[in-house]
Amino acid sequence: MSAPVKGPASYFPSIEKKYGRPIAEWQELIRASPLTRHMELVAWLKAEHGLGHGHANALVAYTLAEAAGG
């Protein structure tokens, strides 16, 4: 039996269901953005794409951690 998903990735199933896009697509949008700071990216996802704060925060945290090698 696999361990339950924790951290930002635990939001991914509900993000995909609610907004109809795969996580990889959200990550590409984040990577392609000229913004680099965490809260700037969160605010942008909320304003431009209608994401809730928790979902935007989870996507940004996960994507930036991946880019940093973590």
Can you describe what's shown?
- With 70 residues, this protein is mainly α.
- The protein has a domain at 34-70.
- It contains four helices and no strands.
- It has helices at residues 12-19, 23-32, 38-49, 53-67.
- The chain is globular.
- The termini are far apart.
- Pfam families: DUF4287.
- This is DUF4287 domain-containing protein.
List the main descriptive attributes of the protein structure presented here:
70 residues; mainly alpha; DUF4287 domain-containing protein; DUF4287
Quick structural summary:
With 70 residues, the chain is an all-alpha fold. It has four helices and no strands.
SSE layout and pairing:
Elements: H1 12-19, H2 23-32, H3 38-49, H4 53-67
Question: Which shape, going by the Cα principal axes?
Answer: globular
Q: Specify the helix fraction band.
A: 55-70%
Q: H/E series, N to C?
A: HHHH
Q: Tell me how many strands there are.
A: 0
On the 0 to 100 scale, the average pLDDT is 94
Number of helices: 4
Indicate the proportion of strand residues: under 5%
Helix and strand content put the structural class at mainly alpha
| Biggest beta-sheet profile | none
